[in-house]
Design brief:
By secondary structure, this protein is α/β, with parallel strands linked by helices. It is globular and about 60 Å long. The chain has two domains: 155 residues, NAD(P)-binding Rossmann-like Domain (Rossmann fold, 3-Layer(aba) Sandwich), CATH 3.40.50; 167 residues, Dihydrodipicolinate Reductase, domain 2, CATH 3.30.360.10. A seven-stranded mixed beta sheet has the order 8-9-7-10-13-12-11. It has a six-stranded parallel beta sheet with strand order 3-2-1-4-5-6, with helices on one face. It is built from 13 helices and 13 strands. The structure holds NADPH dihydro-nicotinamide-adenine-dinucleotide phosphate and N-acetyl-L-glutamyl 5-phosphate (X2W).
Amino acid sequence: MTVRVAVAGASGYAGGETLRLLLSHPGVEIGAVTAHSSAGRTLGSVQPQLAELADRVLGKTSAAALRGHDVVFLALPHGQSAAYARELGSETLIVDCGADFRLRDPAAWERFYGSEHAGTWPYGLPELPGAREELKGSTRIAVPGCYPTAVTLALFPAHAARLVEPEVVVVAASGTSGAGRALESHLLGAEVMGSMSPYGVGGGHRHTPELVQNLSLVAGERVTVSFTPTLAPMPRGILATCSARLRPEALAAGPDAVREAYASAYADEPFVRLLPPGQWPSTAAVLGSNTVQVQIAVDPDAGRLVCVSAVDNLTKGTAGGAVQSMNVALGLPERLGLPMNGVTP
Ligand SMILES: NC(=O)C1=CN([C@@H]2O[C@H](COP(=O)(O)OP(=O)(O)OC[C@H]3O[C@@H](n4cnc5c(N)ncnc54)[C@H](OP(=O)(O)O)[C@@H]3O)[C@@H](O)[C@H]2O)C=CC1
Ligand SMILES: CC(=O)N[C@@H](CCC(=O)OP(=O)(O)O)C(=O)O
């Protein structure tokens, strides 16, 4: 089976990474590639890494250009997806890399995004309990945010097994590509390289409600999340450090019982690698791959579980998660087109 795929937002970081992965996917034929201000330019002039598509000319993103494909990936700024989704029938699988359809709670959407809620689609994190069943056969997929992918996979086994209290603290560092291509290059050079700084501090980041949603669903109770993102001087990667107080019985059971909960949650997951004890995740090790590295430690003095994860924000954190979810939705082998090995050094 070959599916014909269109990518809207092909000139951006998420769209470019989606194309890179799709070019290695044996079940895919690439149809329309569209953009906004770059329409009319060749793909090679804006995505020089995509040698196989260098001569393709970017079309203007429109429903007409996207119609007639089996699958459409939307890698557009927030708020742009709903209009295209309305115009594409349910025979087309739409995989939205943006945030528009991730949240279930309209009030949370309005508070953090400041616009009307467009709706909720099946959530493209196949590793979450029940997610594969929901994604299979679906024609709409909301790809998670990059931080929520990293943090949810670091923490959910602990909540699912009720090892920790429902109050989580997360500090995560992201490479600058997380901000999209629009980030001014002079800011990148002068203010980001050679420095690290937080943003969205104090519960203000829009991924906070997504994290609360994911962890609360798994925990079966409301989980609060104190989330502090930081910008790191590197192009790609997220390193998320998460901690929560262990419930007394989990603390008494000891670190081996905690590790067992993670080992069993991830035993059959192709893209999540629980590292051997003592080895810690690094962004370099997952660069360009769809793999998530996870490690945990029990801090007995603080009574806390510390969970660390690393993902490539553009691969598992966006485009890889999108392609993985497409595979699940279409009933294809889940690993198709998805690298498991990184490119370090
Ligand atoms: N970067 C990341 O790590 C992640 C990104 N995402 C999501 O993916 C989506 C794309 O992000 P990213 O690739 O980083 O962003 P970029 O800024 O790199 O790319 C944005 C893309 O959208 C196009 N575009 C801009 N304005 C419009 C418009 N008004 N109508 C239609 N198309 C438009 C741009 O076209 P042109 O360049 O031709 O103007 C470009 O192709 C966003 O929703 C983002 O939140 C999700 C997870 C992680
Ligand atoms: C470093 C950086 O700026 N990262 C982005 C998150 C990127 C992401 O996941 O995007 P969406 O939720 O927008 O799809 C941010 O903090 O806004």
